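Last lecture ended with a question: if I hand you only a sequence, what can you say about the shape of the protein? Today we answer it with a concrete record. The protein is Glycine--tRNA ligase beta subunit. Below, first the input exactly as provided, then the predicted structure, then a couple of comments.
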Amino acid sequence: MARDLLLEVGAEEIPASFIGPALDDLKRVITERMADARLKHGEVRTFGTPRRLAVWVKDVADAGEDIIKEVLGPSAKAAFDAQGKPTKAAEKFAESLKLAVDQLGRATTAKGEYLSARVEEKGRPAADILKDTLHAAVHGINFRKSMRWGDVDTSFARPVQWLVALLGSDVLPVVFGDVTSGRTTRGHRFLSPDAIELKAPAEYEVALEKAHVVADISKRRAQLVEKVRAAASKAGAQLLEDESLVDQVTNLVELPSPVVGTFEERHLDLPPEVLVQEMKSHQRYFSLVDSAGKLQPKFIAVSNTPVRDEQLSLRGYQRVLRARLADGRFFFDEDRKTPLIDRVEKLGRVVWQGQLGSYLEKVERFRTLAVWLGQQAGRAGEAVTIERAATLAKADLVTGMVGEFPELQGIMGREYARAGGEPDAVALAIAEHYLPRGAEDALPTQDAGALIGIADRLDSLCGIFAIGKAPTGAADPFALRRACIAIIRLVLGRGYRFSLSAAVDESLRLLAPKIANAKRKAGEPAPREQVLEFFRGRLKALWGEQHRTDVVEAVLSAGFDDLVAAQKRLEALSLIVGRADFQPLAVAFKRVVNIVEKQGRDVQGGETNPQKLVDEPERNLHTAFTQARSTVSGLVRADDFSGALREITGLKPAVDTFFDKVMVMAEDKALRENRIRLLVEIGALFNQVADFSKIQAETAAAA
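The predicted structure:
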């Protein structure tokens, strides 16, 4: 009979950011080990609060499934002597399986014939499997930081206080440090401190709710949002949406209880981002705005328990915030006493990266690169704004406010630039060069900030690759993947047309004094190739979310130096591969590409010689190709890739007839090379849009 499994690890307050990853670890280890042991089960749920991590597995089978498996023994040659009698090897193998030699079979493998037997492997009892599983799960949680306590040798995020391990009504023995598992859990620390005895896992969630603990994270989150919004509405305001803060506060409480507080209106003359960050970063308060989105002198704090004296509690929340806002005002007032331009030289004392120099050196590089990018992208008129904004872009890093709140870099640069009388375009570019900060973030609203942002990130990419510190599968300390995706989004979002490889070359040129002596591993590609391949990988992943992977590969293989053009080629090709008649078209194109790949390298350069086209089908193909080439080139220059594909598609009948009627690999060398040269030219025409050899023609019609 199937029974439910419950594991709960109770501890002192676990940091909010640790809870989600820890639950993922618990669930992964438990489900993987149960799968390995062939122990079937139903739904798996996780629960987490600051004081507990729990996994509930429903309908666990009584034992792992029995299986019949084939076991190989010694080779047939080693198992029998010249007279065909079993050797010791055969007898030992049979004895180990409790079989007679004549009950063994034979199996043919790649290495030859071997003795074999089909044996039944009984599944282990669930209790035996789960004892080991739960022990491994509790000891296998990876925390960013762990601690030891008392005389306990093991470590955990915080001291473990209790363990619950139940299979149905039975307690499974699990030990962690000096704590042994039982059936006793605990409720809310203040509202229900007494022990709670569980008879079975099914009681868990309800018992905790009665003890003032909402253990289900999604349910607690929904309650938190509902209560906070209701409190904001009651206060005549609206909640400033902040999903990350909601997630954080959800895992700081077991029973969310919001209260509305206020702060002095005089602080509203501070930049709103400062006020929001003060409330969020240090106090985990929610900010409130009016219907127009203007910040209000109110906040919502979330307590872990309903308060008896709300005014007393509010005075505490407000007193702490008052001190924080006073600090913010002090930093703001002090920072404005020194013009932003006067801070630039101080960046020479701030290290960007040991081998690549200071922030001042980085600024000098990406300022030059940003102006160059502006010229290449047809934004030369922005040069003055770009140069000034780039000069000031990192100056706020040496201000008191950004030192206290690193999240405000760029924002404070904008405010201090305005205070120092810089043009609005310069101030805005300082803030916007950090955009987008994440996948869902907005792009800059003007060119100066966008181009500086591209230059800054490209300098980081090229520099870090050049000194041999490229990201690995497990680590990306300089956030280069995010930087690369941001560059792609900026170029495509702003429609910039410049050569990506030329931009990489220019960045590496500016970095040359710093990377001249950088050591590289033997056989390692040059930094230029590494950076471009890195872009290729990000494009493949990014575009692969919305387009067929073989179509993405076909477009990238034809080149992505102009990112905007590459995206347009992708969109055009994605439309045509969805057509029912594309499969035979792709097959015809592949024949061209395959011959070019196999034979084209042996043919000297130059165009097809029309005088050497002796058969009518090849003359017709050359005529059709010549007409199409002129049209396609014009359409490609106009970014009309759908039109270019239509023209290329029109070559199919002539291509088919050519292959049906003409012997490409003719004995006459001159004739053969001329025909191959014609196919090389046609292949080059195709390649202006995509490498059709990468497309899975057999699935194209089903797309």
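Comments.
1. The first helix runs from residue 16 to 36.
2. The mean pLDDT is 92.
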